[in-house]
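Record 1 of the preview.
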Amino acid sequence: MLKFPRRKFLYMAAGAAALPAVSRIAQAQAYPTRPIRLLVGYSAGGPTDITARLIGQYISTSLGQPVIIDNRPGASSTIATQAAVNAATDGYTLILLGVWETINATLYSNLRYNFINDIAPVAGLIRYSNVMEVPSSLPAKTVSEFISYVRANPGKVNMASPGIGTSQHLSGELFNMMSGLKVPAVQYRGSGPALTDLIGGQVQVMFDAIPSSIAHIKGGKLRALE
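->
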């Protein structure tokens, strides 16, 4: 799932220590000499968290230092991003970001950081798609059947979202626009708690990233719509 050369990644990861604000003495030291913190803007169990834990294990094994996953959910990941911006520029604080950070720049006018100027990219890691899914107890097996179900049950269908401005949230709103429906979005602090309520039937549909949903789909708790 992680399709980049090991040696290239190690070079890029080591480059995180050589940021402009680091002194020449610090640059000359071996990197890393202590644990690395990897910030995640969403709760445990979601696709971002799963990706962070996989890459954290890889970095730890490759560089010989623990990687501590630091979940800071809330405000569409801007809390975690602000923490990364405020951290010392010594290469020991990393953050896993995605398309939501670009979306945040268009949604929020009062961000206390400039994503382009304040964050230095290290490596591209993964690409994945979203899947439209429902609890296995819901009778719909296709998108067309789901649309018919919503129209036959007005006011009884809600859509789970891991946060305002996420690709999952926007996928759901795009579906509403294309289908002419008005399925309201219930906002959660990440895919983990959203999936829990989806499986339990508290919400009836979700557009989620494949990494966090695939096990539930294969296990029969959720159904991917065709």
